[in-house]
Amino acid sequence: MARTFTVTSGGQIRCRGWRQEGLLRLLENVLAVGEDPENLIVYAALGRAARDWPSHDKIVDALKTIDDGETLLVQSGKPIGTIRTHAKAPVVIMANCNMVGQWAKAEKFYELANKNLICWGGLTAGDWQYIGSQGVIQGTYEIFMRIAARHFGEDLAGRFVLTSGLGGMGGAQPLAGTMAKAAILCIEMDEARIDKRIAIGFLDSKAASLDEALAMIRQAQAEKRWLSVGLCGNAAEIFPEIVQRGIVPDVVTDQTSAHDLVYGYIPAGYTLDEVRKMRTENPALLMQESMASIVRHVTAMLEFQRKGAIVFDNGNLIRTHAKNGGVEKAFDIPIFTEAFLRPLFARAIGPFRWIALSNDADDIRKIDDLLLQMFPDNKIVTNWVHLARARVPFEGLPARIAWLGHGERTRLGLAVNQMVREHELSGPIAFTRDHLDAGAMAHPNIMTENMKDGSDAVADWPLLNAMVACSSQADLVAIHSGGGGYSGYMTSAGVTLIADGTQAAKERLQLALTNDTTTGIMRYADAGYDESFDEIAKAGINHFRL
Ligand code: NAD
Description:
This protein is α/β, with parallel strands linked by helices. Helices cover 42% and strands 15% of the residues. The structure holds nicotinamide-adenine-dinucleotide.
């Protein structure tokens, strides 16, 4: 049966209530905006919405039949049954890709995945929270703007940003770059991904050769005109070629799926088809070749850094693989979280999202207006909302992301719930956030690298965070660990709430949104960050300082 991947609109529901219907619409949405929906793949190489099609169909069935007071259990994308709970319990709880410590290795993951015993949910694929490339766009934009403020001035006008990877998340880079007014060149192996980003409005143009791409960038720089250019090619070849030509970009990063040496990264010297075949026929050789290419790729990044470029790791484990491949200085490249965003996370300010379940874009515009009214003094938010509403196209269900912190998320959630109640919006709104959030992630080479107290690898925090969400009446709660090349590298938690305008939703939003950011502040306070103590004092959080 040929499947179609569309979102559902309007106020007609197929489930017993909006909590269940909302989650079903989010599941449909992650597939509608995903990279390879036929294979249930949403983003980040292997991040899946469900284990397989029978699992998917059973999840849909279950969401359509369960009532408040029943909870659906999902294990690595496979529904395993429902249990009787109570009306305030989550509708769905899930555990995705958690392997026991000594076994949590990429090879073991592939073995278990091949036996269909496990699947990787990425960070927001398996728990149906992904909203397309917009999901990371503000984070990427804030990084660029912090680099500008620290090194160049007001913005990146007249500056050359070099990066690679135009997949689900990497596809946000060109738009974030031009929002920061840069001339940004994105190297991508798969021409179809370049065309997709142009079609959805995230990328401006495509060059036919490196010469043409560099000429376009030079011209834009000279005119201080922002421009994004996609170039089909392999970053492991093109980055070294740019080094050899003696050209030094102002900013360099990478967002290929370098975390996964088999299903993500494409080694130099191979076509996409050859790599697809090698994945089953010779994964060991593919791993070796990917590693060799990553060594060249990161060596070029280090060379750019040596010559004065601002180089950072954008959260894909590329340094880790390079170091394992023998690049001793790979970790001279800083990770974006520690370098640019930690002071925000220490205040539990992070990527918060809302999605119009009725598929009415006007709902998002009305919430944009509300944000501007509610937070007129929050420069990050007001600047972002003006930019986003002008420049960020919607994909799938209309959605917005904005970095909000403790108290702000709760206030917004409650105000929106009231708007739903009073029919000022055309339907309920789902609230969620990235797993890369203050209390929700342990990822020692990305989120928690170089924590002040050395607690980088302590995974208690996301587990506590998920239990807090369950105890606080969230509608969906998920615990994820890394799969594929991320196996053994991370644990995180996801949470979703449906604001359906009811009194019960008001209670859920109040508790779950407040307690989510509270655990984030407590986590960073425990590690000794002053910003967190400041928030604790301001918000009167009952934190024990031992
Ligand atoms: P994706 O799998 O959808 O896309 C990756 C892209 O990289 C593909 O289009 C692929 O063709 C391209 N590619 C692979 N090797 C290449 C090479 N050598 N040269 C040029 N292009 C190459 O993945 P995604 O969702 O875009 O995520 C990319 C990476 O970012 C992943 O490792 C993911 O885990 C990570 N990530 C980071 C953040 C963050 O907050 N910074 C958030 C989400 C994901």
